Amino acid sequence: MPDLFSPFTLKGVTLRNRIGMSPMTMYRSTDGKLDDFHLMYLGARAAGGFGLVFPEQVAIAPEGRTGVHCAGIWADAQIEGHARVTSMIRTMGGVAGIQLGHTGRNGSELKPWEGGLQLSPDHRDGWQTVGPSAIPYGAPKRPYPVHALTVEEIKAIHQQYADAARRAADAGYEWLEMHYAHGYLGASFFSPLANQRTDQYGGSLKNRARFHLEALDAVRAVWPEHLPLTMRLGSDDFHPQGTQFEESVTAIGWMKEHGLDLADVSFGGNTDDMVGNPWNDANGWVARAGRIKREVGIPVTTSWNLGVPQNADAAIRSGDIDVVLLGRPALANPHWPVWAARELGHDSPFDLVPEDWGWWLKNFRGHAPSIGWPAVAGPPDADEVVEFEADLAADTTVGDAVPVPAGARHD
């Protein structure tokens, strides 16, 4: 039975364990480039034992960023910075993944700690946002008009995805994910809340999934066949008029036929007016991901509230998911895998760090606590450990509306 520290192979790539660092926007780029900050930040997580390491969502076009300080790969001049990062991650024992995205109608924003408000198209740091239809996300945060993409412009965006994928391969990435969740462009095409088109890209589920399928085709044509191609999908808007989970199960089956190797299951994010969402539930997405895995026959991963090692390990052992993605826990502790290994009684936690570090840590002599690692905490309180249920009833109960946590779309 696999556990959190079992290797995982997808296509021609093997992760040393099933722990991945989820993409998180850092707002540290100039002209979309990765620099020494990213080399330090991402290399440290690979050195800390993460099997799969993502930078933030990487924009396929300047207008696909959240804000002007976000990373991109829309120009060949940006490849060098990415190549430095992938080399460091590989040297430290991890696999470098890239998440390609376009923010659509949720771009042109200030940093979250500066208010996160959308900037007008005529602001020096703003631009005209785009979407499937001319429907703004909504006041007060994103009030400005949205340009409805023409069919020709949609085709151009698919080409931008393909061009970005080519650059990602040239930069040394070995795992490519497309970000079609959290209210960004792909998620908005999938959701009736944002997509009210009457052409081949709107209306029926097949039409609303067309953007995804054509983008997969474009990327698969240039992305090496032996490397994984995955997608973070906004599988539920938690709104009666939005994307429904049942639809997503069907659509992921189509995506598998178009070259999707793994589904990263998340929320739609096309409205703040959500009901019954699992924001505060430990392992809130695991059972849903497990259903997709069983019914579609595709490997799956998910994130959100999996930072307790016992829960993360149980999610893998249950067979519901294949890889755990950690966002904020990876920020809080770059050595989360080592800590988790100690908490779970792994035989040799320090095997997860580079060999030279591991030798010194395993051969420490003297006062044991001086190494800087506290004693193992033992099992968490009972209410922190989640029992896994095959039945999804608890996940689909409608409750009171819960606002989206600040910055949630950037995880």
Q: Summary?
A:
With 411 residues, the chain is α/β, with parallel strands linked by helices. The chain contains 13 helices and 13 strands.
Backbone CA Rg: 21 Å
Could you say which structural class the secondary elements and strand pairing correspond to?
A: alpha/beta
Largest sheet: 8 strands, parallel, barrel
- Helix tally equals 13
**N- to C-terminal separation?**
29 Å
Cross-sheet strand order for the largest sheet? 3-4-6-9-10-11-12-13
Write down the secondary-structure element order: EEEHEEHEEEHEHHHEHEHEHEHHHH
Proper CATH architecture: Alpha-Beta Barrel
Question: Which structural traits does this protein have?
Answer:
two-stranded antiparallel ribbon, alpha/beta, TIM Barrel, 13 strands, single chain, 30% helix, 411 residues, eight-stranded parallel barrel
Q: How is this structure best described in words?
A:
There is one protein chain. The chain is α/β, with parallel strands linked by helices and 411 residues long. The protein has one domain: Aldolase class I (TIM Barrel, Alpha-Beta Barrel). Helices cover 30% and strands 12% of the residues. The chain contains 13 helices and 13 strands. The chain has helices at 36-47, 79-91, 151-171, 185-190, 205-208, 210-220, 245-257, 286-296, 309-317, 328-332, 336-343, 355-362, 393-396; strands spanning 8-10, 13-15, 19-21, 52-53, 57-59, 95-101, 130-131, 147-148, 175-180, 229-234, 262-266, 300-302, 323-326. The protein has an eight-stranded parallel β-barrel, surrounded by seven helices. Mean pLDDT is 91; it is low at 387-411.
